Amino acid sequence: MFDFKSSPVFAKDFLWGGATAANQLEGAWNQDGKGPSIADALPGGKQRFAIASQPDFAWQIDEDKYHYPNHRGIEHYQRFKEDIKLFAEMGFKCYRFSIAWSRIFPQGDETTPNEAGLKFYDQLIDECLKYKIQPVITISHYELPLNLAKKYGGWKNRQLITFYERFAKVVLERYYQKVHYWMTFNEINSAFHFPVMSQGLVPSSGSQDFTNVVQAWHNQFVASALAVKIGHQLNPDLQIGCMILYATSYAYDADPKNQLANLQQMQDFNFFCADVQVRGKYPSSTARMLHDHQVNPQDLEITTEDLQLLKENPVDYIGFSYYMSTVTDITHQDAAKSAGNLIGGVSNPFLQTSDWGWQIDPTGLRIALNQLYDRYQKPLFVVENGLGAIDELTADGKVHDDYRIDYLRQHIQAMAGAVTDGVDLMGYTPWGCIDLVSASTGQMSKRYGFIYVDLDDQGNGSLQRIRKDSFYWYQKVIQSNGSEI
């Protein structure tokens, strides 16, 4: 194991921080002109995805029938100064957050932005800069304006390219002099398994036809390239990245059938979207993927101008989330299954699992970093990583989360190992640095943060912010630039 105490590993300007998303913590879902987003239409609870997967689900908000935790979040909209101050106390060098699209364009298709929404992010950005925390902004993070899903059918509709371009242009022009780091879409490849959150597609609008998913991806690729073009025209030095969900994948055994299936799973899920955004062109495996999913290329609307735009405007870096690894097996139908971050797989007997059944694999992160850097030779940024767990508040008002510290320590060690392997790693922003509403279940009880928020799944609690043991541990990690973990 590498000796962290004797040798500096991470660069002096390494971006230590944390990550959140507007729809999971801001609340204020209908205040100051904000319109509803698709996240606002997803009920809370373990059946969230099952409800959204019903054939007749059509993005209706029914507060008499369901509870919507996103509507309140953790009231970050009102308490952002308190939260940023806590991030500064930990020593954050950066803070990754998203701009709620429907806070700027409430219906998504307007031509004039909502100034009240822009003023909120003026304040949030300035509050970060006050503490010398660099904002890292995700332009679109699972919060498509609801109107664009209901009226236009989500990202399968090319009209959304224009709407996104307008949104990106407004926020880039407003903030480019203060914000250096950007990402265009969050976990864009997650639509491979569940296109609800990233593409605004549900069964009633065609999510079960993979042709629609591929068309939606293409439209997003074009929109992403337009954002890169706009940003670089404003300032060529802006760093604008893509963001993918990465799950290191292993073949179940040495059976060549499983080895081939695993290779194809890596090509399709881990690399396809990144290939287009980083290399500026569709990978050679595209034809095979379309064939496997019964997609006729002639049914896709892809223009010569689109392809030229992709070629000319690749991203500057690769941001990715890493929580777990998966196992690919097509030969053992009775193999035990595991849960995961929008994806599952066969259980790996060598790994432990989280409270929600996600397989914990720090070594998989080192593998992921090497695989991505070997393939693309572009700077990498781990913008999500963390342990969703049930935290208990003790009688004396403390949270002893040694399990979280252990999880994060092992993943930081894996990152350090990857750096010694030669990987160019920009930074690390653990997910949910303050407790927030879970994207996959709508629960507060699935906690990731260094900061405990007194709120339960039913919306009861004081919303008091409480420093966990991991808060003080991460503070020392940042102070030592990763040498004391």
Specify the biggest β-sheet. Answer: 8 strands, parallel, barrel
**How many β strands by DSSP?**
16
CATH class identity: Alpha Beta
* CATH topology call: TIM Barrel
Q: Indicate how many domains the architecture comprises.
A: 1
Low-confidence stretches: 1-6
Overview of the structural elements:
It contains 15 helices and 16 strands. It has 485 residues and is an alpha/beta fold. The strands form five sheets. An eight-stranded parallel β-barrel has the order 1-2-3-4-5-7-13-14, surrounded by five helices. Strands 6-8 form a two-stranded parallel sheet. The relative contact order is 0.14. The model is unreliable at 1-6 (pLDDT under 50).
Please describe the topology of this protein.
Blueprint: E1 15-19, H1 22-25, H2 48-52, H3 76-90, E2 94-98, H4 101-104, H5 115-130, E3 134-140, H6 146-150, H7 159-175, E4 181-185, H8 196-199, H9 210-234, E5 239-245, E6 248-251, H10 256-279, H11 286-292, H12 304-312, E7 317-321, E8 325-328, E9 337-338, E10 345-346, E11 352-353, E12 359-360, H13 362-376, E13 380-384, H14 402-420, E14 425-428, E15 451-453, E16 465-467, H15 469-479
Parallel strand pairs: 1-2, 1-14, 2-3, 3-4, 4-5, 5-7, 6-8, 7-13, 13-14
Antiparallel strand pairs: 9-10, 11-12, 15-16
Helix pairs in contact: 3-5, 7-9, 9-12, 13-14
Keywords: Glycosidase, Hydrolase
Active site: 384 (nucleophile)
Pfam family, one: Glyco_hydro_1
